[in-house]
Design brief:
CATH topology of the largest domain: Rossmann fold
Number of domains: 4
Number of strands: 15
CATH architecture of the largest domain: 3-Layer(aba) Sandwich
Radius of gyration: 28 Å
Shape: elongated
Number of helices: 23
Structural class: alpha/beta
Helix content: 40-55%
Strand order of the largest sheet: 10-11-14-9-15
CATH class of the largest domain: Alpha Beta
Length: 537
């Protein structure tokens, strides 16, 4: 094992004292003292609350306090961290020993006695066989999961002649109870790194526009209904699917044309799931491959040229305990598809440049307007990842397929913008109901915004001729109605083919450079248009 000496981490700027992130530290035994030594270094950058408990007691106390207090991140170490991770409603950052910690602790133990026992939790410490061989140390390493395992490991080692124990706080407590001296594996530097990671996590979530965690019960059915408006049978089926799938941890693949509300479905699934973590969203097609890997999986210090000192938490870790929404999943590069599959299969993430993975409890919801089946056949998307993502499916109908919902959506959007209910007269509303809506609900929302600007609130009913003046595309023949099938899947629009370069440039010119209007006419997302335009450069 190569030992890399840790460099000092960069100091993030001090936050506004009125908006300090809240960090709770959870510890027992020796680690409590070490945390107490380091906490004063961070008390100007975070409000830190020590909780000197472990395991079941810690879970009970934290659960009670979260009902009346706010916490951004919890820090814990060893088996305590492993126990708390899946039982808390807030993200957890583990204190992790590095190679330098191990080398220093073993050196201290060697000064006490020649026969050394290393006792760690199953998630701690990389392999160190080469280190042991190089320095000629007589070390016996045992890993434990439960407190009983740790006690048994110590008893066996003592019976086999081990003279000193290096390990976590729990391991040292058991060792001293049977008369063996103990050396704590963690160092002050590893505790500092945990605090830096916790602060980085709060900043990552803030950059992603994710709200701080609060205790949240599962959303009631009417709360989900508000996210996806429409009383048509197709939309009723979509809401029924959300309610059915939300309580489960299986991945969900949401399909639908641009503007149909795929992210709203993902947010509805998260809101109704009762998952205590955050909802984190990422558009896989909006970031270059080199940046996407670091954004999604995070990286360690020195992982690549230009990497931030101290590394960075990725969005997979940021969504721990919550939901990760991956929009435009068909744009995910093949190498990253392999890494995502590992996250889904193993429930762990490996940062760029890291050697040890981090366990995560995250539910993935993916969305696409492309046919993933076609991408699989074209060998542009992994078949095994496709089947893993499509464990559960929700297909969104186009607005053309549920035209009866247009009046309700009009009223909602006008009221959302602070206006009265829809000012359109009956003829204007009827013409909108017969329109093809290539941009779907997003196009309708943009139209309402346009009309709000052009038609004063006190101007009376908006007649059809005036509507046609501001929306000349309605002059075309009304779109033929699609047959109302029994499932939303039948109403999904097929992703349109890419026009040639000249046609694309001409359309952009016709729309006076307005890319939103181009997307609406083509029935594509902004990301797809961006990709097509880049291909012409």
């Amino acid at each position: 094992m190569s030992i890399v000496l840790p460099r000092s981490r960069p100091r993030l700027p001090d936050p506004d004292p009125g908006h300090l992130p809240v960090i709770w530290t959870v510890s027992v035994s020796r680690l409590t003292g070490l945390l107490g030594d380091v906490i004063p270094e961070f008390d100007r950058r975070a409000r830190i609350v020590p909780i000197n408990l472990g395991f079941e007691e810690a879970v009970d106390v934290i659960g009670q306090r979260l009902r009346r207090e706010h916490c951004d991140v919890v820090i814990a170490g060893g088996s305590n961290a492993a126990y708390l991770r899946s039982r808390l409603e807030v993200p957890l950052v583990p204190i992790q020993a590095n190679g330098f910690d191990l080398m220093e602790a073993l050196a201290r133990a060697r000064r006490i006695a020649p026969r050394i026992g290393l006792v760690t939790h199953a998630t701690d410490v990389p392999t160190f066989g080469s280190f042991q061989h190089s320095f000629g140390l007589d070390i016996e390493h045992r890993r434990f999961v439960t407190r009983e395992d740790a006690r048994d490991c110590i008893a066996d080692m003592r019976a086999n002649g081990i003279q000193v124990i290096v390990g976590t706080g729990m391991a040292i407590d058991h060792a001293e109870q049977v008369g063996l001296p103990g050396v704590l594996l963690y160092s002050a530097e590893s505790v500092r790194q945990a605090f830096e990671h916790a602060l980085e996590l709060t900043q990552t979530l803030a950059r992603s526009g994710v709200a701080s965690p609060r205790r949240r019960p599962p959303a009631r059915r009417h709360e989900v209904d508000r996210t996806l408006l429409g009383d048509s049978p197709l939309m009723q089926q979509v809401r029924e699917r959300i309610a059915l799938y939300a309580p489960h941890d299986s991945t969900v693949l949401v399909t639908g044309a641009t503007g149909t509300g795929k992210e709203l479905v993902a947010r509805g699934l998260h809101a109704a799931s009762g998952r205590a973590g955050r909802f984190v969203a990422l558009n896989c097609g909006a970031i270059s491959e080199s940046l996407l890997e670091a954004e999604l999986f995070g990286y360690t210090e020195g992982a690549f040229t230009g990497a931030r000192r101290g590394g960075r938490v990725g969005l997979v870790e940021a969504a721990d305990g919550g939901t990760l929404f991956l929009d435009e999943i068909g744009e995910l590069p093949m190498p990253l598809q392999t890494r995502l599959l590992r996250v889904l299969e193993e429930r762990e993430v490996l940062r760029v440049g890291a050697t040890e993975p981090t366990a995560v409890d995250v539910r993935v919801v993916a969305a696409t307007l492309q046919s993933l089946e076609s991408l699989v056949e074209a060998q542009r998307f992994r078949r095994d990842l496709y089947y893993r993502l499509a464990a559960l499916r929700i297909a969104l109908p186009t607005l053309q397929a549920r035209q009866q919902d247009v009046p309700q959506l009009l009223t909602h959007f006008f009221q959302q913008l602070g206006q009265r209910p829809s000012p359109l007269d009956a003829a204007a509303t009827q013409r909108l109901c017969g329109y093809a809506w290539p941009g779907n609900v997003r196009e309708l929302r943009n139209l309402v915004d346009r009309l709000r600007i052009h038609w004063p609130q006190d101007a009376g009913a908006l007649p059809l001729p005036q509507l046609l003046h501001w929306m000349p595309e309605l002059e075309a023949a009304p779109a033929a109605r699609l047959p109302m099938q029994g499932t939303a899947a039948a109403a999904i629009a097929i992703s349109p083919p890419r026009p040639d370069s000249d046609a694309l440039r001409q359309l952009l010119a016709d729309c006076n450079g307005n890319r939103e209007q181009v997307c609406a006419r083509l029935g594509i997302s902004r990301t797809t248009l961006w990709r097509w335009l880049r291909a012409d450069v």
